[in-house]
Amino acid sequence: MRFLSAAHGFARVAALGTCLAIVGPAAKLAWSQGHASPDQASPDQANPGRFLADFNKRVTTKVLPNGLTLILCERPEAPVFSYFTIVDAGDANDPGGQSGIAHMFEHLAFKGTKDIGTTDYAAEKIALDKVEDAYAAYDTEYRKRVGRDEAKLKQLHDAFLDAQKDAEQYVIPNEFTEIADANGASGLNAETSLDATQYFWSMPANRLQLWAYMESDRIANPVPREFYKERDVVMEERRMRVDSNPIGRMVEQFLAAAYVAHPYHRPNVGWESELSQITATEAAAFHKIYYVPANITIAVVGDVKPGDMAMFEKYFGTIPAGPKPEEMTTVEPPQTAEKSVVIKEPTQPLYLEGYHRPDYRDPDDAVYDAIQDIFSNGRTSRLYRSLVRDQQIAAQAEGFSGFPGDKYPGLFAFFAVPDQGHTPQEMRAAIHKEIDKLKAADVSDEELAMFKTRARADLLRGLGDNEGLAQQLAIYQLRYGDWRELFNQLQKIDSVTKADIRRVANKVFVDTNRTYAMVEFEAPKPSAQQQSQAGAQ
Amino acid sequence: MRFLSAAHGFARVAALGTCLAIVGPAAKLAWSQGHASPDQASPDQANPGRFLADFNKRVTTKVLPNGLTLILCERPEAPVFSYFTIVDAGDANDPGGQSGIAHMFEHLAFKGTKDIGTTDYAAEKIALDKVEDAYAAYDTEYRKRVGRDEAKLKQLHDAFLDAQKDAEQYVIPNEFTEIADANGASGLNAETSLDATQYFWSMPANRLQLWAYMESDRIANPVPREFYKERDVVMEERRMRVDSNPIGRMVEQFLAAAYVAHPYHRPNVGWESELSQITATEAAAFHKIYYVPANITIAVVGDVKPGDMAMFEKYFGTIPAGPKPEEMTTVEPPQTAEKSVVIKEPTQPLYLEGYHRPDYRDPDDAVYDAIQDIFSNGRTSRLYRSLVRDQQIAAQAEGFSGFPGDKYPGLFAFFAVPDQGHTPQEMRAAIHKEIDKLKAADVSDEELAMFKTRARADLLRGLGDNEGLAQQLAIYQLRYGDWRELFNQLQKIDSVTKADIRRVANKVFVDTNRTYAMVEFEAPKPSAQQQSQAGAQ
């Protein structure tokens, strides 16, 4: 049910590589404002049946002959529209040895096309091909296991840098975003998770055709402009978010331990050695497989009319068709033994544990949401009350479902930050006590009722603005083949029972299904190398 | 230095998927006999210098225009020859989502070619293509995430079975091996590790041309005959060696935890979900990349003459050239925290721990061999004396280097089986005590001398028979670009010092570089599901 891990506080911090490629300083603000203050006509929360009937009238769906799915929703209250494009491929689809490649597309999203962002595409194309050739020559020498020639390597690297420089002369920096901005776009953005890649912005209604041109051109004709520069940006992002960040390091090790076969095992920003050697040629191969119309769903919401569909077809219909990518074969085998990673560092202690759960299609999906709500939603939630308020051992404590994704079976995870003087072991014991309570006794009527009220309200509130609605329509259409499933969620929330919660808790929260990672405080000590030198003397 | 994990007792048991695809009941016997009793002219162990000079006269090496490396070594003492083919690709090269695919080639090794093993290849080809089409149709439906049609799935599966049956009518079972056998071949075999795939057998000298024809044809023109049948055989092998075997299960979890990015993380037999969905089409793609002449080294040893090279060229020179496969980009990041897997089962307790070490090219490679020898070689070794003989807490205890491979950085691992009434925790403590001793004090003169004597003897003894020599020549040629490096090993062994051993032990055997797995005995208890049902009542 929760598609974007960003919907959750901790997950937002921890979702490695889910960086927002902010374009322009105002963009992020606009996006968060859009979500925080839906000031357009709100749906009738009291009557979802009427609400759905209303949507049925407003929404037009069409699968184009090339396989691309378009959803159009009329909301003429203001002369604006928002769109949301989902490419059904994220870093879980990264080919072996190329982790982080899906995420590169987020960084290349608005670099332009054959027509936008270049002074002379024909010449630039030749120059970019030369960059690839130069890089390949360098890379082959670099990877040699025996007999690498360092002088030659240096020469080849210089040649690569020269080729890059040559290609840069054709670049018109930021032309794509400047065109968008000049035409009133706001919230221009892209996001990558392990599950999918998303692109979105909002615009005045009279720029609908311009948008259709820009978005379809961007999808069909991306140019790997400044690819290696952008790869360096992502490397730096990795250093900041993972390598130099205690939570980032812990989460990376935690997921690597929790998953053995499934790609949720990998950080979506990529392993350093792989990310640092991704090429534009590999990215083009990824694009060819995954950026095909049959793998793309686009929702447009706002001051649009069913008659606009013909214009959309004109632009999006020309994207060349390709076979729908194969579904992933890999299934994580059942976990049968507790696993752990114990990090000892002179830093803030932390505790994180997770249990494998099924994917979003599971009939109990809403039950996991209920458990998350009861454990973590606000100051009345069980973990906050117990660990933070009453025992005063934790600065923060929460449980969250569907991490690091939920397209495939994710984890139900618990995260706690010990207060000064307390340990990760105490967090573990206190969390297990709360889990045992949930397994042993029914939740209260109030807790169940509060979950349902909040979940319904959250769901409906998210539809109040064009951005949120476009996102949800696209997601549900993609995930269930019908956006109307969105409204069945209300039914699913309503039908969760106390017995469901106990049953699921007893099924999932078992020792052999657990992986944990902890950071234990340890005073700085001599490095292994220093020890070794001492030992050798 | 140890290329085949099979060289070591435990590793042999634990090297998942390194199964011997035995062809004919006498084959395995012949192979092990060949290694156990070298009864041909033995090299002069006292004088390796003269030995090398002698080899320089006997060995001819040639890289064919298509990139294939051939090594020919004259040993005319008996009218026989042995050969060893290495394809420089193992299961570490399996593409993402296709773990186990390199190993499939071991199983398909002797199924025949376009000319051998078929009654009518033209018709069989058409039938095999239909098998692939039928399987692809079935597989697409099988993988559907939403809206899978079970009736259609059954129908497609039946169609696939029919297509398979149709293709089988052209198969002449075992024709390839029967031709080999009828011409006096012995030890026909194949092996796959994470690092490489190897093929070898021995034959009378007057069958040299027949061998060249069969081996070159087998490499160039493999036919995916009975592919899906063989996939089932491998699935069964996985069940036997991993899923139904406590050591196999533990080792799989151990490696998955010890490695996060590098493919040593994966079992070479493959993850069940991936192995069970590998296709012959994917195998053909793997073959096209990795079974190119530039990636293959063949050594032939025995009653052969330099003049035979021309005949070899005639056969092996016609294999179409292809680009040398790219070297792997992935490098395992440094481990910074202890990791563990704790399995609780009603079974024999076990303990396994490992520390990351560099690959075979490391200047300290022979030092790791020395440490292995001192810990584990026979009844005078430290672990045996301490854990088995003196403390009487273990039935078995050893340390071994380069697991699960050594082409890439492998592990130095320790394995112990507690005696009745003793625990894996005791094994851990006793092993750590021995490690601490090695870090704190120099080994004795006797220990160091015994290592050197044994290592030299092992190395030279391995060259005493044609099979062993062919293997070593091929391996060293592949790994260092020159088979003569084999003889530098003697120098490397000789130069290991006591200080080297302490230095390396202090560098590698540190807490943060350790992963451990243990099986703790636990009486059988109700399953999670039974608990859950109880909890829900």
From TrEMBL, chains A, B:
It holds the Pfam family Peptidase_M16. Residues 86-123 form the Peptidase M16 N-terminal domain. SUPFAM superfamilies: LuxS/MPP-like metallohydrolase (SSF63411). Gene3D superfamilies: Metalloenzyme, LuxS/M16 peptidase-like (3.30.830.10). Residues 278-452 form the Peptidase M16 C-terminal domain. GO terms for molecular function: metal ion binding. Belongs to the peptidase M16 family. This is Putative Zn-dependent peptidase. It comes from Silvibacterium bohemicum.
